[in-house]
C-alpha cells in the first residue's frame, strides 16, 4: 500500500527547494522502503537544483544518508527489516561488461528502484542519484543499502554515502597512495578534506593542502592530517606551483588531487606534480567547464590522469571499513559534520555551502 511522507523537491531550475508531500508506492520485488535517519547536504544536490547535472525536473533531492530498512519487496535477500544502513548509488548489477570482467567499481548498470515516487497529483519525481533521501522515507533497490555497525552516529555515517567517500576513495583507491609518498590536494571542501584524511590514513609522508581560504588550510593541518598548506588567494598559477614544488624537494608531489573540477585547480594539479606523477580529478565539473593545455605538455609530463567516480569505492567493502575505523578513533569521520539541521533548513544550508561556512550540514529526521 502506498504512503505519503514529507520530502524536499526542486521543482524547476534555479528555484528554491520546496517541502511537499510525496507518495511512495509499494516496493517492487527487489525494492525496499527505508526510514531516513540523517542526510548530508551535498554540493551535488545543489547541482541538481540549479540544473547543472540534468534537467529531469522535478527532482526529489538528497542522497547522502543513513536509514533503517522498514519494508522489503517479496524477493529481497540483501537486507532485512530493521537493518541500519548507509545508502549508496553504486549498487552493482553483476551482469554488465564491467562486472563480467571483474571491474565492478565501474559497473555501467547500477540498480535503482523499479518504481517512481510521485507528487500527490501523480507527477513522477526523479530521485537524485537514484536515491532521493531529503524525505522521511524513500524507495530504493535493496542493493543500494549497505549494512554498517548500528552503534555509529547516523549523521557521521551518512556522509560516506557520497562526498566523504568520494574524496577518501580518490586518495586511497584511485590515487593508490603508498606509504612515504607526497600528495597535494586542491580545494578543501568536504571532498578535499576527505582526500587529505585519506592520504594521511594511507601513510603519505607529506600532505599539502591547497585552497583560497586560509581558514580551511589551517583546519586541514589541525584536524585532518595535512602536514603543510599553500593558501592560493591572490597568487598566480606559477607561484602556487612553485610553492608546492618547494615543499617537495623541488620535484612536485607523487600524487595530486583536484577536488574542485575547474580549469585553475586542474592546471595547478597537473603542472605541480612530479614527472610521471599521478593526478586524480574528483571535483565534478559543470556542463560548461573545459580544460585547455598544450598536447605536448600532456605527452611530456607522463604519469597518469584519472577521474575518480565515487572514489572508485565498493560500498559493501568500504563503508563498513571506514565506519569501523572511525569508531576506533583512526579516521575523523565525525569531524565533517558541521551542523545538524531540520528538513526545513535545506535552502539555508545551500547558502552556507556557497559561502564556504560549512563542511557538511546534516539533516536529522
UniProtKB/TrEMBL annotation:
Gene3D superfamilies: Medium-chain alcohol dehydrogenases, catalytic domain, NAD(P)-binding Rossmann-like Domain. GO terms for molecular function: S-(hydroxymethyl)glutathione dehydrogenase [NAD(P)+] activity; zinc ion binding. Keywords: Metal-binding, NAD, Zinc. GO terms for cellular component: cytosol. GO terms for biological process: formaldehyde catabolic process. Its cofactor is Zn(2+). The keyword Metal-binding applies. InterPro entries: ADH-like_C, ADH-like_N, ER, GroES-like_sf, MycoS_dep_FDH, NAD(P)-bd_dom_sf. This is S-(Hydroxymethyl)mycothiol dehydrogenase. It comes from Corynebacterium liangguodongii.
Amino acid at each position: 500500500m502506498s504512503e505519503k511522507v514529507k520530502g524536499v523537491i526542486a521543482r524547476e531550475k534555479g528555484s528554491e527547494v520546496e517541502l511537499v508531500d510525496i507518495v511512495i508506492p509499494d516496493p517492487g520485488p527487489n525494492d525496499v522502503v527505508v526510514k531516513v535517519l540523517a542526510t548530508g547536504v551535498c554540493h551535488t544536490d545543489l547541482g541538481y537544483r540549479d540544473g547543472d547535472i540534468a534537467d529531469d525536473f522535478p527532482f526529489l533531492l538528497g542522497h547522502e544518508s543513513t536509514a533503517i530498512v522498514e519494508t522489503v519487496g517479496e524477493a529481497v535477500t540483501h537486507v532485512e527489516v530493521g537493518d541500519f544502513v548507509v545508502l549508496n548509488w553504486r549498487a552493482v548489477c553483476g551482469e554488465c561488461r564491467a562486472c563480467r570482467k571483474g571491474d565492478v567499481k565501474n559497473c555501467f548498470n547500477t540498480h535503482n528502484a523499479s518504481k517512481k515516487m510521485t507528487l500527490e497529483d501523480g507527477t513522477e519525481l526523479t530521485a537524485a542519484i537514484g536515491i532521493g533521501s531529503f524525505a522521511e522515507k524513500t524507495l530504493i533497490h535493496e542493493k543500494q543499502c549497505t549494512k554498517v555497525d548500528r552503534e555509529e552516529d547516523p549523521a557521521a555515517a551518512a556522509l560516506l554515502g557520497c562526498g566523504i567517500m568520494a574524496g577518501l576513495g580518490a586518495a586511497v583507491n584511485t590515487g593508490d597512495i603508498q606509504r612515504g609518498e607526497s600528495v597535494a590536494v586542491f580545494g578543501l571542501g568536504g571532498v578535499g578534506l576527505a582526500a587529505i584524511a585519506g592520504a594521511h590514513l594511507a601513510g603519505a609522508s607529506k600532505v599539502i593542502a591547497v585552497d583560497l581560504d586560509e581558514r580551511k588550510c589551517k583546519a586541514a593541518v589541525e584536524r585532518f592530517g595535512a602536514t603543510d598548506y599553500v593558501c592560493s588567494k591572490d597568487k598566480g598559477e606559477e607561484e602556487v606551483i612553485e610553492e608546492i614544488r618547494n615543499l617537495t624537494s623541488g620535484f612536485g608531489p607523487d600524487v595530486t588531487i583536484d577536488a574542485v573540477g575547474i580549469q585553475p585547480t586542474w592546471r595547478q594539479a597537473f603542472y605541480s606534480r612530479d614527472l610521471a606523477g599521478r593526478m586524480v580529478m574528483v571535483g565534478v565539473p559543470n556542463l560548461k567547464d573545459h580544460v585547455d593545455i598544450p598536447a605536448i605538455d600532456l605527452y611530456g609530463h607522463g604519469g597518469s590522469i584519472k577521474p575518480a567516480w565515487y572514489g572508485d569505492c565498493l560500498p559493501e567493502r568500504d563503508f563498513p571499513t571506514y565506519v569501523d575505523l572511525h569508531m576506533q578513533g583512526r579516521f575523523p569521520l565525525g569531524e565533517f559534520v558541521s551542523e545538524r539541521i531540520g528538513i526545513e533548513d535545506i535552502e539555508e544550508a545551500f547558502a552556507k555551502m556557497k559561502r564556504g561556512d560549512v563542511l557538511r550540514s546534516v539533516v536529522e529526521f
